[in-house]
Amino acid sequence: EEEVEAEDPEPEVAEEEPEEEPEAEEPEPQEVEAPQALPVAEVPTEVEEEIDEEYAELFAQARAAEAESPDKGIDAWRKAGQKARTLRTPRRALARLYTDLERWNALVEVLKEEADLVADPPQKIALLNQMVVCYRDQLGLDVMVVSGLNQILQLDPARVDVLDALAAQYEKMKRWTDLIGTLKKKAEVVPGTEARVAVWVQVANLF
Predict the structure, then answer these.
(1) Which of 135, 138, 177, 173 has its CA nearest to residue 152?
(2) pTM: predicted TM-score of the whole model, two decimal places
(3) Which helix H or strand E contains 41, and what residues bound it?
(4) Cα gap 53→112, rounded to integer Å
(5) Helix and strand tally (H, E) in the chain?
(6) How far apart are CA 135 and CA 129, in angstroms?
(7) Are 134 and 107 in contact (CB under 8 A)?
(8) pLDDT digits (tens, 9 = 90+) for 144-197
(9) What is the DSSP string of 130-141?
(10) Closest CA to 63 of 97, 101, 88
């Protein structure tokens, strides 16, 4: 019998190791811009107003108390404000102290008092704006934000920036009817045909 020659075994092919995929780079976290204050006239830290000798002495005592401690200053300026009911100086001082100490509820109350004393529309709007920013960014009181923005629009109905802020607030609160009404007001005052058409397109998309 003939011997059968054994077949040579096929050479083993070394398995290729899978290439390691490069690790995906994690996207760098993007900074979220903080909400910006509405562009209105700034409220001065101090105001110039006529002060008689009695009030001048009272305010000097309040400043001395403030130099000892912020809380003593707040007590002294409050007392000064109760006596000088028609003057802004004590309220400016209190607003500054409350802001430094981040006492937001007290800040909006003193801003309300001061706004009632101011006759000049740009300054009144500036004070209302400070209240709105505080309600929105510090206290998260949506209803008060709406109230403050509407007060500004009563003084200056053509303020497109305020209408934009109000529209954004209504959209956040899902108050669609109020949003449509605000956009319609914006369409009446925004300059330029193209801009007006864009606003009406926004309105149409909400139906």
Answers:
(1) 135
(2) 0.74
(3) none
(4) 27
(5) 9, 0
(6) 10
(7) yes
(8) 999 999 999 999 999 999 999 999 999 999 999 999 999 999 999 999 888 889
(9) HHHHIIIIII--
(10) 97
